[in-house]
Design goal:
It is a single chain. The protein is built from three helices and seven strands; from the N terminus they run αβαββββββα. The protein has about 150 residues and is of the alpha+beta class. It has two domains: about 30 residues; about 120 residues, Beta Barrel (OB fold (Dihydrolipoamide Acetyltransferase, E2P)). The mean pLDDT is about 80. The chain is elongated, with a radius of gyration of 21 Å. It has a five-stranded mixed barrel with strand order 2-4-5-7-6.
Length: about 150
């Protein structure tokens, strides 16, 4: 076997490994953005994906149990139980009636387990956004950050 052939085989093996690692990294970092109603319509397929869910925080639903924060997000009449167990404190704007984004996965208990939370101000702190669809508004804000 010539040295050129050995070098080419080694190069192909290294490039193939790097390509495989890159594709797996992209798949693991994919996040699907949905509102609460869309996620409830996804059914069991939502259980396997990392999802960013947006909705309004239901009044009087925020409870704290140790380091966990339990709350309910709602969108167009559909509600979803959530729990945040992240290492960072919840934002100051995380209050009843605020719009929030929770990033995480569903647990085997059917509750959404959020790793990160973002909250938008409540309407009493600013004017109501003049957008027809708040879900696309959140998505456009997220795209600007990236």
């Amino acid at each position: 076997m010539s040295t050129y052939l050995k070098f080419e085989m080694l190069t192909v093996a290294i490039l193939g490994t790097l390509g495989w690692l890159a594709l797996n990294g992209i798949e693991d970092s994919k996040i699907y953005y949905k509102n609460v109603k869309e996620v409830s319509q996804m059914g069991p397929s939502a259980r396997d994906k990392r999802i960013r869910i947006g909705g309004g925080i239901v009044a009087h639903s925020i409870t704290r149990e140790g380091t966990d924060v339990h709350f309910i997000l709602a969108w167009e009449g559909v509600q979803m139980k959530m729990v945040y167990s992240g290492i960072e404190p919840v934002p100051d704007t995380f209050k009843d009636g605020a719009q929030a984004l929770a990033d995480g996965k569903f647990g085997s208990d059917g509750v959404f387990h959020a790793a990160t939370i973002q909250a938008k101000w409540t309407l009493k702190f600013g004017p109501k956004p003049s957008v027809a669809n708040p879900a696309t508004h959140w998505a456009s804000l997220l795209r600007r950050r990236c």
